[in-house]
Every structure is written in structure tokens, then in C-alpha cells.
């Protein structure tokens, strides 16, 4: 039986630079999803970024926040340029959005095609609200000179919810694989990353809490395996043996570093998506910036954004729709005929988008 049609309201925040070129591609892929999925979209154009700051004196207008909060199910965020030197009153809109909407998880899948010489298929789940990034820093003078200190805060609540969402992601990935997607993994595995051998209280709490959350029956019964890795040896293994990882869960700072490091494993920033996830809300966001060097040339790789749109759908419980987008993108990459210049091809953004839309 056909399900009733679900309409998702999606905020579109292109931002600056190539954000304006790739976000429309994200919109088109959502609109092109087969009607049989029973999904419709209402899009709402919203502003944020450096250009917005220059027009309105704020990088994140209140209007954008309130529309996202009250009218939207999810959003796609492009990229924002930031001034090279600090400008009074300017601060990153995506950082502010994460706070205002309590988007506590930053999720970054890093994946190659299965036929790559060294295939990778992992997702890094980074806690996004605490750890050293609470920004409680002080500096004091001492007879030996200045001493600066920063608070590293780890809570049971934040550690538990990030581990729980990591477990859910592991299960969903397993479902998508079971539905026939080619994969390099046999079963769901979550790797908990920490440095509790040195930071026994903070990282110790993260470790114990994450372990406890991930041993809940709904994960254990579904075969989710848990592994731990000290962050320094993790970096080593991540580069030597990246195929060993499925889902990685980490506190904020380690997650930040690991997710950029892992992105370097796949050849182009133009391939790597992310999502900022909160309770019942997700913002898809390509990992790249506004790329001023290629802005306006029509050659930005849209794949990071298309994958971000799919990732957003995953968190809005539209797993099937997400799987269709992933499959169409993978098919384009596997064939390798219509690739953008960052991947060594000559295709324009438009040609890549058309090829992927055709495969949908
Ligand atoms: P920002 O300050 O906005 O982060 P940036 O100068 O750091 O801008 P990035 O967007 O981070 O630039 O990109 C780094 C490099 O990767 C640039 O050379 C850029 O052209 C390239 N790049 C980034 N995204 C893409 C993409 N989608 N397609 C092709 N090349 C890209
Ligand atoms: Mg950058």
C-alpha cells in the first residue's frame, strides 16, 4: 500500500561563493526523487554569511533562525566566506546555528567507491557542544610569565546522546547495506575514540558513558560491535588501514581533527558531506568552504552537497530516499566519465548534476 505523501519543509541557505552554485543542485536532486517514495518538498530560501553581513550587519539574521526553528524539518547549508582578519560583529553563522538549534552531533561520512584500490567507507560522529570548545579560557600573570588555561568539559548527558546517535547510524548503515548497497563492511562496528589513559576523568567519563550507551539491548541485539581506540594510535591506523573503520564516535576536539584528516583520504573536498544533527532536525552541509578560487566558473563539484542532502534525509527518517541518492552518486563516480576538474575530469557542475539526475 502506498503511504500517504509526506511533505518536508527544507530551508536553503546557499551562503557565499560556490555555496550559491551547489545548493541549487541539492534542491534539484531532492525534487527529482521518484514519486513512489511518497515525498514532497517545500523549499524556503534563507540568508546567512559574509554577503549577508555586508548587507544587513549580521551574518545570521534572526529571520533565518526563526524560520528554521518554527517552519522547517531540515536545511541545506552551502558555505560562508570569512574575512581573513577578525571583523567586529562578524562570527560564523554555522557555529551560531549549531548552538541556537542544539545541533549536538556533527556527522561526516568519508567514502570512496567500492572498486577503489583502497576502498573506504566510514563515518565520523563528533560531539558538538562541549569538550575544550566550551571556550572557557583564562589567562593570568605569574612571576614566570603568563599562564593560559582552558576548561575541557565532558558530561554524561552529551556523551550518552552522541554515542546513542552513533549506534543508530551504525544500524542504519547496516540497513542500507542489507538493501543491496555494495559495501566493504560485514557488520556494524562503532569505534569509541578517547585519551583516557591520560585524561582519566574527562575522557574516562566519555569512554565509560559511550560504552554503556552502546551496549544497550537495541544495539547489542542487532549485532553492533564496540571497539575502543586511543586517539593518537587511531590517527596512525586511520591512515594505514582506513578500511577498518565503520562508525567512529569522538569528543569534540578529537572529532574535529579526525574528520578533517579523514576527509583528506578521498581525494577531493568536493566529495565530502556532513550533517549537523539535533533532536528531529538536521542541516546538511558540504565540508568544503566557499572556494573563492573557482567561484563563478561553473566547475564546483556538487557531490558533497548531493550527499549532504541524502544525509539530511537519513536523519529525517527517509532512509530509502537517501539510499537512492547515494547509489546515483556512486554510479557516476564508478563510471568515472563525467567528473569535475577536482577529480581530474572536465565536466561542469551542470553536467555532473545532469548525469546523477539521469541515474536517479
Ligand atoms: P573558505 O575560506 O570559504 O573555507 P577556502 O579558500 O578555504 O575557502 P575551500 O572551499 O576550503 O576554500 O577549498 C579548498 C580548496 O579545495 C580550494 O582550492 C577549492 O577550489 C577546492 N574545492 C573546495 N570545494 C570544492 C568543490 N566543491 N569542487 C571543486 N573544488 C573544491
Ligand atoms: Mg577552507
UniProtKB/TrEMBL annotation:
Location of the Isopropylmalate dehydrogenase-like domain: 9-356
Domain of life where this protein originates: Eukaryota
Pfam families: Iso_dh (PF00180)
SUPFAM superfamilies xrefs: Isocitrate/Isopropylmalate dehydrogenase-like (SSF53659)
Bilayer-spanning residue ranges: none
Gene3D superfamilies: Isopropylmalate Dehydrogenase
Assigned keywords, A-Z: Magnesium
Family named by the database record: Belongs to the isocitrate and isopropylmalate dehydrogenases family.
Protein name stated in the entry: Isopropylmalate dehydrogenase-like domain-containing protein
Organism for this UniProt entry: Humicola insolens
Amino acid at each position: 500500500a502506498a503511504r500517504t505523501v509526506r511533505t518536508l519543509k527544507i530551508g536553503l541557505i546557499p551562503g557565499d561563493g560556490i555555496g550559491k552554485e551547489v545548493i541549487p543542485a541539492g534542491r534539484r536532486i531532492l525534487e527529482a526523487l521518484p514519486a513512489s517514495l511518497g515525498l514532497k518538498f517545500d523549499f524556503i530560501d534563507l540568508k546567512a554569511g559574509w554577503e549577508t553581513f555586508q548587507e544587513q550587519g549580521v551574518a545570521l539574521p534572526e529571520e533565518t533562525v526563526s524560520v528554521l526553528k518554527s517552519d522547517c524539518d531540515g536545511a541545506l547549508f552551502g558555505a560562508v566566506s570569512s574575512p581573513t582578519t577578525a571583523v567586529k560583529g562578524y562570527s560564523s553563522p554555522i557555529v551560531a546555528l549549531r548552538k541556537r538549534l542544539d545541533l549536538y552531533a556533527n556527522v561526516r561520512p568519508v567514502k570512496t567507491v567500492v572498486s577503489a584500490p583502497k576502498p573506504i567507507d566510514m563515518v565520523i560522529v563528533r560531539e558538538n557542544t562541549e569538550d575544550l570548545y566550551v571556550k572557557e579560557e583564562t589567562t593570568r600573570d605569574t612571576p614566570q610569565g603568563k599562564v593560559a588555561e582552558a576548561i575541557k568539559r565532558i558530561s554524561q548527558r552529551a556523551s550518552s546522546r552522541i554515542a546513542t546517535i552513533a549506534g543508530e547510524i551504525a544500524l542504519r548503515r547496516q540497513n542500507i547495506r542489507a538493501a543491496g548497497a555494495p559495501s566493504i563492511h560485514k557488520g556494524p562496528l562503532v569505534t569509541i575514540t578517547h585519551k583516557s589513559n591520560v585524561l582519566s576523568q574527562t575522557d574516562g567519563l566519555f569512554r565509560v558513558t559511550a560504552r554503556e550507551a552502546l551496549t544497550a539491548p537495541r544495539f547489542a541485539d542487532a549485532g553492533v560491535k564496540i571497539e575502543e581506540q586511543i586517539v593518537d594510535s587511531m590517527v596512525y591506523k586511520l591512515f594505514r588501514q582506513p578500511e577498518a573503520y565503520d562508525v567512529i564516535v569522538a569528543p569534540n576536539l578529537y572529532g574535529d581533527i579526525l574528520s578533517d584528516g579523514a576527509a583528506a583520504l578521498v581525494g577531493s573536498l568536493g566529495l565530502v558531506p556532513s550533517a549537523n544533527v539535533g533532536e528531529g532536525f538536521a542541516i546538511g552541509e558540504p565540508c568544503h568552504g566557499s572556494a573563492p578560487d573557482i567561484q563563478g566558473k561553473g566547475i564546483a563539484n556538487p557531490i558533497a552537497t548531493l550527499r549532504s542532502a541524502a544525509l539530511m534525509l537519513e536523519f529525517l527518517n527517509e532512509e530509502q530516499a537517501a539510499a537512492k541518492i547515494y547509489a546515483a552518486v556512486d554510479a557516476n563516480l564508478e563510471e568515472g566519465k563525467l567528473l569535475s576538474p577536482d577529480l581530474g575530469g572536465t565536466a561542469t557542475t551542470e553536467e555532473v548534476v545532469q548525469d546523477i539526475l539521469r541515474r536517479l
